[in-house]
Design brief:
The chain has 85 residues and is of the alpha+beta class. It contains three helices and four strands. The chain has one domain: Double Stranded RNA Binding Domain, CATH 3.30.160. The longest helix has 26 residues, at 44-69. The chain starts with a strand and ends with a helix.
Length: 85
């Protein structure tokens, strides 16, 4: 499941779907982390744009977080994003 990024309906975040070793997972990246680590602005459209520019690092961080947690819905941790840059 490779789903396009979209705004989360429940928290200020971007969420997307990806597959990892045959498992479909939902990934959430908090807007505050996109702002602090990648320079995204305060507007939701800017969070999506920041995701697009940094998606390879964000997806690396998501794979790392999945290896640690093995849950089907995960929030990428700030430390994971910092390590993936």
């Amino acid at each position: 499941m490779e789903a396009s990024p979209r705004l989360s309906a429940t928290v200020e975040a971007v969420e997307f779907g990806m597959s990892f070793h045959g498992s479909a997972i939902k990934v959430i990246v908090l807007a505050s982390d996109l702002q602090d680590l990648f320079g995204a602005g305060r507007e939701p459209a800017q969070w999506l744009a920041s995701y697009e520019v940094n998606k390879h690092a964000i997806r690396r961080a998501a794979r790392r977080r999945y290896q640690l947690s093995r849950t089907d819905t995960l929030v990428v941790q700030r430390a994971d994003l910092e390590a993936a840059q």
